[in-house]
Amino acid sequence: MNRDDNNSTFAIILHNVRTYRSAGVIEVVRGMRKAELTLKEFQSSQNPAEYHEGWRYFFEKTELAAGTDPAQATHLRQADLELRESKQPQEPKFTIRASSNHHK
Known about the structure:
The protein is α+β, with helices and mostly antiparallel strands. The protein contains four helices and three strands. The chain has helices spanning about 5, 30-45, 50, 70-85; strands at about 10-15, 20-30, 55-60. The chain has a three-stranded antiparallel β-sheet with strand order 2-1-3. The longest helix is centred in the C-terminal third of the chain and has 18 residues, at about 70-85.
């Protein structure tokens, strides 16, 4: 872990690995260690049925301030994701052309 990880903020997110649905940001914390500990706390208190349904926690580095309201953090994260996706170059569309040269 480097010094930057101690000063960075991380969003803890709940996501369903089966449906690819996100429940959003659960908490925003400062520091990698705090993120790891918070993640473990959420995982250990998770209902086994929710886990079986595919709900998993993960964290990612964020520019949001530690302690940001989860609903606001979710909204800001979604807006950022949409902005990044809109800047992605579109994949070229390939067309398959039927060959007019038939070999016998």
